[in-house]
Amino acid sequence: MPSNLILHSLRHLGLMFLAKGATYPGMPPQFAYPAAIGDLVAAVLAFVAIFAVAENREGSRFLVWLFNIAGSADLLLAITLATIYGAPAFMGAAYWIPAFWVPALLVSHYVVFVVMLAGRRAQIHEAFTRRIDASDSPRVPRAGAA
After folding, report:
1. What is the pTM of this model?
2. Domain presence at residue 73
3. Dmax of the chain from CA atoms?
4. How far is 99 from 126, CA to CA, in rounded Å?
5. Is 99 helix (H, G, I), strand (E, B) or coil?
6. What per-residue confidence (pLDDT) applies to 88?
7. What is the pLDDT of residues 48-101, one digit of tens each?
8. Contact indicator for 32, 18 with CB cutoff of 8 Å
9. How far is CA 79 from CA 59, 65, 70, 103, 136, in A?
10. 53 lies in a domain?
11. Strand boundaries in the chain, DSSP class E
12. Which of 66, 73, 85, 74 is nearest to 15 (CA)?
């Protein structure tokens, strides 16, 4: 999990959409600003979550969930806004961000969701097992149950 967070802590690259020379003139600001700021927010959330997870702090799971949901939403919003406002025509030197970086980040977000959900399922299973083991009364099937 920390390796995925480290990858996402480098999402400051979306700020290239605001840099002159990194994109062609005419980059739609309706795309550039939300994409850049969303990437910066996701990077900061990932950076904060790295330390919480590494030190096994209380609330680290919440921070990872927050980062993963916000980061996924940012990417989906950026893809949508780029399509609506025709941003691909103005990508210039930043073309590699949507061509390589965005798909890699989406896969990474998916992996984090899978890991987090698997961990949650294990917690729920353990809680039910403890509850059943803690009861002293034998389990009696209900009338009519097969």
Report:
1. 0.79
2. yes
3. 75
4. 42
5. helix
6. 94
7. 999 999 998 999 999 999 999 999 999 999 999 999 999 999 998 888 888 999
8. yes
9. 30, 21, 14, 11, 55
10. yes
11. none
12. 74
Query: Does the residue 144 lie in any domain?
Result: no
Residues 103-132 pLDDT 10s: 999 999 999 999 888 877 766 667 666 666
Closest CA relative to residue 46, chosen from 80, 22, 70: 70
Has residue 142 been placed in a domain? Answer: no
Contact 13, 20 (CB under 8 A): no
Q: What are 10-51's pLDDT values in tens digits?
A: 888 889 999 888 999 999 999 999 999 999 999 999 999 999
Domains of the chain: total = 1
The CA-CA-CA angle for residues 69, 92, 89, to 5°, reads 80
64 and 116 in contact (C-beta within 8 Å)?
yes
Position 135 pLDDT exceeds 70 = no
Range of the domain at 9: 2-134
Q: Which two tokens stand for residue 91?
A: 């990508």
